[in-house]
Amino acid sequence: MKSYISKVILGIFLLFTPFIFAQNLSQNQFKVKGNCDLCKERIETTAKKAGAKKASYSIDSQTLTLETEGNVSSADILKKVAEAGHDNELFKADETVYNALPACCHYERDQIVANEDHHIHSKKENEFYVKGNCESCKARIEKAAKDAGADSAEWSAEKQTVILNFNLEKTSADKILKKIAQVGHDNEKYKSSDSTYKNLPSCCLYDREIQFGEANPKVHSEESTSQDHHDHGASHTENNNEKAIEGVTVTGSKASTSLSKKEAGLIFNIDKKELLKAACCNLSESFETNATVDVSFSNAVTGTKQLKMLGLDQKYTSLTKELLPEIRGLASAYGLSFIPGRWIESIQLTKGGSTVTNGYESITGQINTELLKNSEKPETSLNLFADFNGRTEANITSVSKIDEKWSQTFLLHGNGTFGDTDMNKDGFLDRPKGTQLNAAYLLNFNDLEKSGFGSHFGINFIKDERTAGQVGFDKKIPQNQQSLYGVGIDISRFQVWNKTGYVFKGKPYQSLGWMNQYTFHQQDSFFGLRNYSGKQQTYYSNLIFESILGNTNHKYKAGVSFMYDGYDETYLAGNFKRNEIVPGAFAEYTLTGLKYTLVAGARVDFHNLAGTQFTPRLNFKYDITPQTILRLSAGRGFRTANVFAESQQYFASNRNIQILENGGNIYGLKPEIAWNYGASLQQEFKIFGRKSTVIADFFRTDFQNQVMVDLDQSPQQLTFYNLEGKSFANSFQTQWDFIPFRNFDVRLAYKYYDVQADYLSGRREVPFMAKHRGFVNVAYSTNKNNNGGFWSFDTTLNMVGKQRLPNTSTNPEQFQIPIYSNSYVVLNAQISRNFNKKIRAYLGGENLTSYYQKNAIVDVKNPFGNYFDGGMVYAPIMKANFYVGLDVTF
């Protein structure tokens, strides 16, 4: 170890050889960790005692600027600074010295990764830190090194280092690194001038704030492919929304939930670490610790959950898996339960208009789910889960490499709900009983670095059966042969998909991608004496070409798409069949400047039933300062309403369905069309010596046409008709994320919604939408021990204001519900223990306040009567529920 340290010090000494012999002053800047003025005084004093002529420490930039002369070594100074308790880019402080510092001086150490020798990386003597992003950076850095006299130079994007071979009689590391800085690349010896850096192509604008030795988040290991292809090609967008071979290349973020400052759109990246903070049995439970998405509570009879975003129902948000259409059509009601939480690698959540390359259906935003398919080494995991009310679950996931180009993923999920849960003692199950079997296989080919090809194949099968209704109902006996009210839902679903991309040789900015998917979905169900069944077959294809205009500051995409939906539905005695055939074409242009990014796109779709539809969308980002970002967005979207599938939460009632046809070709109705406009401000600052972020956004959605779901005409009727008048949703949200002290994360949010529409009876607030919502999430974890073990604690508080409820004034008084609901608070919490890197156990509770909606079912004692209604749910229907779980990795 001592010889290794000696070699490093010798290497640094050689760097300064020309200056030593010339007896000139040498000024250097190094990354050093500190928090406060006390740290500043300690660092500067220690540096001067160690021989620095001058020492100046900046708390904001976390840098120490040194002036030395003679035989004084910067390495010796930094070693003394570490001995005083401050980690730096060469040495790490001893744990006992760090712990002995005053509390105000306890900086965040996790951002520096040191080896046993206390060095940031085990670099070779001829290896030096140089910042960059992509292949263009690599070519520029290596050329500059050779121009400065190097015999050879090899720069690694992953390591952010260059290995130099040179003759000391002809040149020096100092001269080479100085030349590299002159062409625009900061390194451990020299920093590039601001003007040179700013003149680099946009793809080469690396993050100058990242310290040397810390991973560049825009670069990934070769096993998961270089992030080069994220910025240059592989048919990816700047918004991290659409990438033609997204199944092959991956993006990631260090934080469990992050909002990149580089994205033009308001896009949140949710890592799988965030999903471990709650039970997260499926996608509907993946947003419990996220303030952007609202999750409605389960229907009292069918157990359905729905997401809401920007004050509007889930159907107006594009829900994709692997950037392919997923939860739509007949899957609308139960599709959120078809993606198990343990299968999810990451979620990208876009507020407002998303890219046109993803289709025309997005109105309020997009939620894309990426499945597990990337691992540095083979990994198999087992998850076991059970709650105290009869629900059990098991997940097996396995990711492995076949060879250097091929990898595969096996995903298996099974769950069962066996207990009769009736906490409010009304005789109805609070949630359905049943089972689900869900299996998927993913195959990935990655040869982007050599041949330029990458491909991703997936296949998925689901069998879901559930029974609900009155306690004691027997699904095996026909409903008309028993007096108890029952609900039976059987779903079979099959999917197969492929995504293939090609990156042109010598042109990393140019690529071609092609995505294809086939889906078969069948549902057979009954709600008391009412039956509903449906089949859907969908084929989707999307071809995208991406390149540049002159340079990478001007990017464009162009492509064609095709969507086929075949529906065959039966409700009561009525049969409804239709085929939707939608060829389309699109183009998108991205302009990147020094402080701004503009993404403008448009698409035209030729819908055989809805006519030709033009869909423009625009996203604009302007960096007022590096810490203050303004975003603007505007866009149009359209969709066809599936009135039966999307309204199944109201089927368990006495309501008769009435469709007031309006000359359209989908149930006699015209398509839904809406414009969405948004603005957001992102502000970063430091509080408690740590990074803090405040985001405020406002979005407005205006419907040009809408299929109204009217529950107010009569308590015995559910009416669908096209909008005549106005329908709009105003959404305001502000969110503050901060870290008051180490390992302690706080997220606070407030949301205001104003959602109104012109119904046949006049303008009303849309029901089941609270105007005011509050959100608090607090997470704390202990430091890891030598085995990688630690404790985690997570608590989420949701405050929901009053909601307008449907009009029931014509019912007998005992079967009427209030005009507005009560406000309420829901508390969820979880404690987990990682015993080591392979074993984790957790215990949690949901709705710990035990607030539940009394009389959730109208006329519960007479389910076959005129006033029975199980769809008037606005709050939890179950009291506190506890669960336990175990994760084991092999």
TrEMBL record:
Transmembrane segments: none annotated. GO terms for cellular component: cell outer membrane. CDD domains: HMA (cd00371). Residues 123-188 form the HMA domain. It is found in: Cell outer membrane. SUPFAM superfamilies: HMA, heavy metal-associated domain, Porins. Residues 217-245 are annotated as: Disordered. Keywords: Cell outer membrane, Membrane, Receptor. GO terms for molecular function: metal ion binding. It holds the Pfam family TonB_dep_Rec_b-barrel. InterPro entries: Beta-barrel_TonB, Beta-barrel_TonB_sf, HMA_dom, HMA_dom_sf, Plug_dom_sf. This is Outer membrane receptor proteins, mostly Fe transport.
